[in-house]
Amino acid sequence: MTSLPYNVLGIATTVGITSVAQLILKWQIIRVGHPEPGAAGAFRWALALLLNPWIMVVFAGAAIAAISWFFVVSRLPLSVAYPFVALTFPLVTLASALIFGEPIGWGNFAGLALIVAGLVLTVRQGA
Questions:
Q1: Which of 39, 42, 105, 120 has its CA 20 to 30 A from that of 71?
Q2: Distances from the Cα of 67 to the Cα of 1, 9, 10, 33, 61, angstroms
């Protein structure tokens, strides 16, 4: 039922694509800017994002990540596989600091360390 290389590849694909997608979304939202006031402004803003080729890449990536996840949960118990999705939190947080200059403090680092520690404990319990 389980095959380690496929499970690792599937989890890495899902987590990696999901993390990169968040960074692309942020990048494109920064590029497009804030919506103009009112419903019409919000509609134009949303439409500009939806028709943005990079956002379309994000949607395609989400589909690939979903298919990858299907393979993962077909091979592993959900209670073992799902905690790995939490890796998106430290990956996106650290990449956001590096790419966008978003501030992260000691509280953030402590929280991210707790997430990783929780993942380790959860996975070891399921093993």
A1: 120
A2: 18, 12, 9, 32, 10
